[in-house]
Q: What sequence folds into this?
């Protein structure tokens, strides 16, 4: 394929000719190598035999899964899902209006904000966790500021706890939510909004009756991304949460890294994956049904 | 001075390499030695490795390793692939015993480590069939630590952890197998660790321990997180390592380490070699070197750890010895608990903590 052909052919047929058919195999093979094979290894480890006080041997048994069938792990699974769903809800509730506001700004400002958000992505969970725990601490945190301006009697700490954990998780995923929402929001036809205004709807009413229904699919997509992303966070719950906020991911880390119980860690990871897939599938199904009614 | 001895050591190695091309390949890579990252590794880099290289001509690559268990999993996974992230590692006892059950440690030649005679029996490690594989490296105490600004008076007993006045002020290690809080509770309230022999006893101790939950602000896995919070006074009390607390205090931080009246926990680290290592000979030279009384004394002076060789063999003064150890009977970890009943204890522990 030369530059000549690309120029000569009409744009629609270029994409078909320029990319040979076998090219589709590249992502398929990459997916198999980077996802399916590790997943198969994890499956096989999850049914391996745990050697008490040692590591594990190849084998086939359900012991690790059976250990998960307890009220204790039920509660932890519930905690994980609730924390991630909560973080997703808060994050989208902040990111969606923010993105609409952003799309209405001057082009240059939009670029600057997006670059700043991309820069935030380069921060690791560790840095975010420790920064927020310092920011919310009694000795060096915002409690001092509140005390200085007389809002509270003396400096206090706001970490560890649910508030600190949610702050950390939302900070972690906010840029992703905005970056996912930005393209559809920026393509939103301004005439629809203007039409609603002309028919007498106020800005809030326009937002809820025109913008939100139009953006239903992108918002759902962003929520799922944020939910799944926070489900895997294992450091923030340790640094910013109390033990009752430790998610399944924290317990997986404990088992894999500190107890050298890889079969149990793998079993928990697979259950977490299945639950996440189930919830995502349910969400998509619900989204499609009501979308059809519309 | 230090830099010069390092250069001389390198030069000696260089000449050796030129004279004997046959060993060039084996000697070209430095001996990789793992110690806990942070203060510990820095102290070894500054005070131990340069002198070892100067004397033996063996170059050392210092590797910062995470706390025992995490490093054990990495070593094990790497060994399955025939790799060794470090040749020699310092392992805490629970991790060492788990590695032993998995046959992870390379067999060493006892004749190549004659200084093992300096060590008490429990610091000369062998497989059940008698194959020798490691030696005690350093001992350390886990003590009751406080921020001196927040607590002008040092606490005297582990009971301070249970004191309602310390609500939300305490930092404790997050795992049963590295905090040894079961042993601390058993010694403080049940007259000793014998009660931990059966599951019923362990449950009684856990019940008592669960009373500290309201006082605990942080169950830490990462030492750095607690140390920083202790130094700033954010979390002004907790359990921590006597050696690093001493080094921090020497740096001018407002922290102190106290040996409680019930005793401090005495744990230790041992030198072991990964079975995937191809530098067994040089590893043996290092392990033998580290079991010398004068090297153990140097560790006590510069790293703040208690010697693994008998005190009489070293030239430590009373003052120097008391800075790193205590004459009080220590609380000894009940290691069997974390090997034979590890998964059960871990499960009960998790349920107690998350309450």
A:
């Amino acid at each position: 394929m030369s530059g000549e052909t690309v120029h000569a052919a009409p744009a629609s047929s270029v994409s078909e000719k320029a990319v040979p058919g076998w090219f589709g195999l590249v992502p398929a093979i990459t997916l198999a190598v980077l996802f399916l094979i590790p997943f198969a290894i994890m499956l096989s480890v999850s049914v391996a035999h745990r050697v008490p006080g040692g590591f594990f041997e190849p084998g086939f048994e359900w012991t690790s899964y059976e250990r998960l069938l307890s009220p204790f792990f039920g509660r932890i699974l519930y905690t994980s899902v609730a924390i991630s769903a909560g973080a997703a809800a808060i994050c989208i509730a902040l990111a969606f209006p923010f993105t609409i506001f952003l799309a209405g700004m001057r082009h240059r400002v939009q670029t600057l904000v997006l670059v700043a958000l991309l820069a935030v992505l380069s921060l690791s969970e560790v840095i975010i966790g420790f920064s927020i725990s310092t920011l919310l601490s009694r000795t060096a945190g915002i409690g001092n500021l509140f005390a200085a301006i007389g809002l509270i009697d003396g400096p206090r700490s706001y970490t560890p706890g649910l508030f600190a954990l949610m702050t950390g998780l939302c900070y972690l995923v906010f840029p992703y939510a905005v970056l996912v929402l930005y393209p559809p929001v920026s393509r939103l036809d301004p005439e629809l909004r203007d039409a609603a205004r002309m028919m007498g709807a106020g800005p809030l009413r326009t937002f809820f009756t025109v913008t939100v229904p139009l953006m239903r699919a992108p918002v759902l997509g962003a929520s799922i991304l944020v939910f799944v992303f926070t489900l895997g966070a294992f450091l923030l719950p340790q640094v910013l949460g109390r033990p009752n906020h430790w998610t399944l991911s924290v317990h997986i880390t404990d088992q894999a890294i500190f107890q050298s119980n890889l079969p149990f860690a793998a079993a928990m990871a697979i259950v977490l994956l299945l639950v996440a897939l189930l919830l995502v599938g349910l969400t998509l199904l619900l989204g499609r049904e009501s979308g059809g009614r519309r | 001075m230090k830099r010069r001895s390092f250069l001389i050591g390198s030069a000696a190695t260089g000449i050796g390499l030129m004279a004997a091309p046959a060993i060039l390949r084996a000697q070209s890579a430095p001996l990789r030695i793992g110690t806990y990252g942070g203060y510990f590794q820095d102290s070894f880099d500054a005070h131990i490795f340069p002198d070892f290289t100067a004397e033996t001509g063996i170059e050392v690559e210092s590797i910062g390793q995470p706390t025992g268990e995490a490093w054990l999993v990495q070593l094990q996974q790497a060994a399955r692939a025939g790799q060794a992230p470090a040749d020699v590692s310092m392992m805490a006892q629970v991790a060492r015993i788990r590695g032993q059950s998995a046959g992870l440690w390379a067999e060493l030649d006892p004749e190549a480590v004659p200084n093992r005679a300096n060590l008490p029996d429990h610091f000369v490690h062998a497989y059940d069939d008698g194959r020798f594989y490691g030696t005690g490296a350093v001992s350390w105490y886990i003590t009751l630590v406080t921020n001196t600004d927040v607590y002008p008076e040092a606490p005297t007993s582990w009971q301070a952890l249970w004191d309602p006045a310390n609500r939300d002020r305490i930092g404790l290690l997050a795992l049963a197998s590295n905090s040894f809080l079961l042993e601390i509770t058993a010694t403080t309230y049940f007259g000793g660790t014998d009660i931990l022999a059966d599951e019923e006893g362990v449950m009684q101790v856990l019940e008592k321990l669960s009373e500290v939950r309201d006082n605990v602000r942080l169950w830490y896995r990462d030492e750095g997180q607690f140390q920083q919070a202790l130094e700033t006074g954010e979390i002004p009390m907790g359990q921590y390592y006597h050696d690093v607390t001493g080094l921090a205090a020497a740096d001018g931080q407002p922290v102190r380490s106290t040996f409680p009246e019930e005793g401090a926990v005495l744990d230790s680290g041992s030198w072991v070699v990964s079975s995937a290592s191809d530098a067994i000979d040089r590893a043996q030279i290092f392990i033998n070197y580290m079991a010398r009384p004068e090297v153990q004394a140097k560790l006590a002076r510069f790293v703040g750890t208690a010697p693994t060789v008998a005190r009489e063999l070293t030239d430590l003064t009373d003052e120097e010895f008391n800075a790193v150890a205590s004459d009080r009977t220590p609380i000894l970890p009940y290691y069997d608990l974390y090997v034979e009943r590890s998964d059960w204890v871990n499960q009960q522990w998790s349920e107690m903590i998350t309450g």
Remarks:
- Chain B has two domains: 2-139+267-324, 140-266+327-354.
- Residues 1-26 of chain B have pLDDT under 50 and may be disordered.
